[in-house]
Amino acid sequence: MWHLRMLGHLMLIFLLCEADSTCPTESNPLTVHPPEVIGEYGKTVILNCTSTELEYEEMYWRSGTTTSEKEDELDFVGWSVPLSDWHVTAKCVIKLNNSAECSKDAEITVYKNPVKVNLFPTKHTNSAVVGRPYELQCDIREVAPVKNLIVRWYINNQIIKTDSFNNTSKTPVNTFSTSKVVLRKDQHGVQLRCEAQLDFGRSGPQLPAMYATYNVSVHYAPELKNPDNIVVYEGDDITLTCGVEANPPPAFIWTRDGVNMLENTNKLNVIQIKASATYSCVATNYLGSVTKIINVRVIANPATPAAIPTTEASTKKGCPLVLMPAEAVVRFGDPVSVNCSTTDVAHFEGMGWEAPFGGTGFEKSSLVTWKVENLEEWTIESKCYVNLNDSQCSVKPDITVYKNPVNVDLFPTKNIHAAVEGKPYELRCDIQEVAPVKNLIVRWYINNQIIKTDSFNNTSKTPVNTFSTWKVVLRKDQHGAQLRCEAQLEFGTSGPQLPAMYATYNVSVHYAPELRNNTDNDIVDVDEGDDVTLTCEAEGNPPPVFNWTRDGVNMLENMNNLSIIQVTSNATYSCKATNYLGNITKIINVRVIPRAAAPAAMPDPGATTKKGCPLVLMPAEAVVRFGDPVSVNCSTTDVAHFEGMGWEATFGGTGFENSSLVTWKVEKVQEWTIESKCYVTLIDSQCSVKPDITVYKTPDAVTVSLDSSPMVEGTEYKLNCDIINVAPQEKLQVKWYKGSEMVHKQRFSDPIVTPVNVSSTLMATSSRNDDRALFKCVAELHLGPKGPELVPAAESSPYTAVVYYKPQIQNCPGSYRGVEHEFHMDSLICKADGNPEPTLQWYYQGKRINASEPLTRAQSGEYTAKFVNSLGSISTTVHITIEYPPSFNCDKSYEVQADGKLQNECVPQGEPKPDIIWYKDGKQMSTPQYWRKHDSGSYSLKATNNHGTANHMLYVDVLYAPVFRKGSYTLEVTLDANVTFDCHAEGNPDPVIRWNYTSADNVMETTGGRQKNISITGATSTNAGVYVCVATNKVGSVAKAVTLVMKGKTRQFPRDIIWILIIILILITITILIVLYCSRRKKQRKYSLVSQSMPMTTKANGVQA
């Protein structure tokens, strides 16, 4: 055999020499295993190279300028190659002699899974148009090698396209794939998905696909879907439906025989139709329009008109009013309208709507409509009334205003994240800002099975925050169950069918330790001297801590398994498994079965292995690393009977010597099982002892990898720790670390002494806190007191965990102020944490908006931020206030009563609220609170806020009631005297003046300027009395009184004296007449007399008529 091997070696050298020191393929003795390696960047791979040619000078691995340790005896060489270079190469080289060598390359592929995948439309158009190509782009970031990248496109999980790449770059690149799709209208809301996956074939690693999704809205022009000919009885009510569907929803215009009906909804209500007509409905969106013609033919009603349906009947029996609709459910902020018509035309005088907003006033029409463009009140106090010839009545519509919940949150009430088996676990479902709460239904589910339903009795009509609680008792097999609460407003079958808002919670169920086989007392039979592993077989959640005892003595072991080496006697072992919920104990009785011949006891260090054998080993036990030197001294204590001694060994033997001290020495231990013994020959006997040699080898590599699919919060994951080429296995202990904290420990008991590959597993439930956590495992060889002082160990490179979890809001303000035409929702800092990274969607009044469009002042209000990723969504609200510069929308003139306020103040619009300054005649003045009679005039108003200034000119006319210059007084006159008294008043507007008195022939009124005079010529006793002057304008009336008193009444005298007096009086009269005549020629006066019987009411500065 040796000759043939030498012959082959010589032939190989001859061939290599003939080939100018090259290595022909058919003669290459090298085999690389594995021939092709695919590994993740940053990890380490193990390469082995074996040779069929055993006669060589050296064999080694070479990578760039680095070489491995050179082997010159074994037929293989291994190497751990770190994948830290994208262009890494590895070549196995064997040097046969000084002039010939062969080599073989290992094919190494270094990969990196994509860091992120994004999907978006190329033209930033959020909506597709039916029938038109809609292009999306899938961005894949930092992937290598890109030639192995496959991108698959899906519509609702149906694959539509696959892309591959020709780029030969080995380093990470950013690349993309595009897909043009043509969608139908029935695909509105469809989910498009792109998946990026590195594909290395069936033999390569099966890597998870990274993906991104995009839900697309499909727009299409209006389309008709209903018939268009209707026959109806005369006097009936009818509702016409346009029957058009489109996306975005169209705007509607209705006409009747070509006349616009000012209706802009999908439906048209016609009350008490009288005659046939042609109605047209034009539906329009930005993609087009369509017209529907509806021919309504009215036929005579042969019978009494049908009673008004219950849903449209008036609210009072006998009141001839019909509401259409009588009941309505309206979302807060949406438009609403109700038609009111009368059925009693014969006695009809007029009708109208009374309402705090949207009222119509009194109208002669038999059909009036209450209409509100934006319903922003929670309590609706509106009624329709009708005036008949002899009565009045009214009806009220039943209007329900609703608001869907802003947010639903689910959490345990006591902040305990784990339930305990068999004990009530209470959860609370918070529902925020919902109205009306009496229509709210909350449903509870376990794994999609409904368990409980809650309703509410609160009659509040405004939005409230409320909650529902649920106590659930869970079993251990429900660990990880998904609990869900759904909140939904229900208004019956005739009301709107609103979507349910929900929140989920995955619960961990804890339970005390239990024995898997339900047996708490086991008997284990084992042969004497054999090894045995005892298993506690207990499980619990959280995982229990184990404590082992032997015959009541603590063994300081805390694992599920207990390894016993060379069992020699019966014993009772107990395993106690404990967690915070309890403990359980398992008793294991180990019975030892004696062997036919008992093995010799292991000597202590320096003692012989057999009783009476006079040999001493130093050391008796040794621990040596594979490839290191080892030596053991053997001496005899029986020199008197000594003849000779020596070592028998597979290598390092000494032969028979006369010395009483012989040494077994090996320069390089390259065997895993040491068969050596020291023997002594005495005069009458021979005996021998064996040293206890443990050969160990630290691992070539220790790596950590994820065994299952990607980690998802709340699910169990499995990490594998692969330990390559370690010996002996029974001394191996693996420790798992998360960061710097040890989370798991595992020991191995298999008594294999040659190098093996070993795996350890870490099972745990992932949480979002584990994302980006660093896991590593450390392989330690615990070789006992004779081993190295420092425990031989090798640790893996850190494994970075990637945990996927649904979004959680981190930073989002409750309110924000922005500037009109500048602020858009994209500029608001609102962030959430999630993996995959969540996308942010903004909603306003329940509809998704384009967050990049600037907002206007009309768009202030509550906005909902919804963060979405593939695992769920979360929402929050932000109150947005849009600021804008001041502006005036006021009249140019105002009227106000003195000492009063303007009924309609001139208030500028603006946000923030502008500061206003008043000017009169160019001078700044304080803002008038009450207007005085002399404040009439022109004013200039200046409004200012942070964003600008606005000016406005107005005229204020201050009105005041009439005021007399002179109040009431009494005037005394003599008989036959002429008297004149005037009445003059000021007021705005100018007052109208009139006199109230008893007329007489000698009383005359005259007008001069703003006054009216009374002139009395030749006053008589009949002219005595009260004369009342009344001044009136639109503000009020005032009066003053002038009391005319006659002087000169005489007593009864004797007749003679009377005649004398008469004669004297006649003379005096003639004289007076002459004087008066002359006086009249100079100046003429006017007087008036009023009856004393006229009633008077005194008023300040005058008398009220």
Describe the fold and architecture.
It is a single chain. The longest helix is centred in the last third of the chain and has 28 residues, at 1055-1082. The strands form 25 sheets. Strands 76, 78, 79, 80, 81, 83, 85 and 86 form an eight-stranded mixed β-sheet that branches. Strands 70, 72, 73, 74, 75 and 77 form a six-stranded mixed β-sheet that branches. This protein has a five-stranded mixed β-sheet with strand order 2-8-7-4-5. The protein is built from two helices and 90 strands. It folds into eleven domains: 2-111, Immunoglobulins (Immunoglobulin-like, Sandwich); 116-215, Immunoglobulins (Immunoglobulin-like, Sandwich), CATH 2.60.40; 220-306, Immunoglobulin-like (Sandwich), CATH 2.60.40.10; 307-398, Immunoglobulin-like (Sandwich); 407-506, Sandwich (Immunoglobulin-like), CATH 2.60.40; 515-593, Immunoglobulin-like; 615-696, Sandwich (Immunoglobulin-like), CATH 2.60.40.10; 701-801, Immunoglobulins (Immunoglobulin-like, Sandwich), CATH 2.60.40; and more. With 1105 residues, the protein is mainly beta. Residues 222-297, 397-503, 513-591, 699-780, 807-881, 962-1045 form the Ig-like domain. One of its GO terms (biological process) is cell-cell adhesion. One of its GO terms (molecular function) is integrin binding. One of its GO terms (cellular component) is membrane.
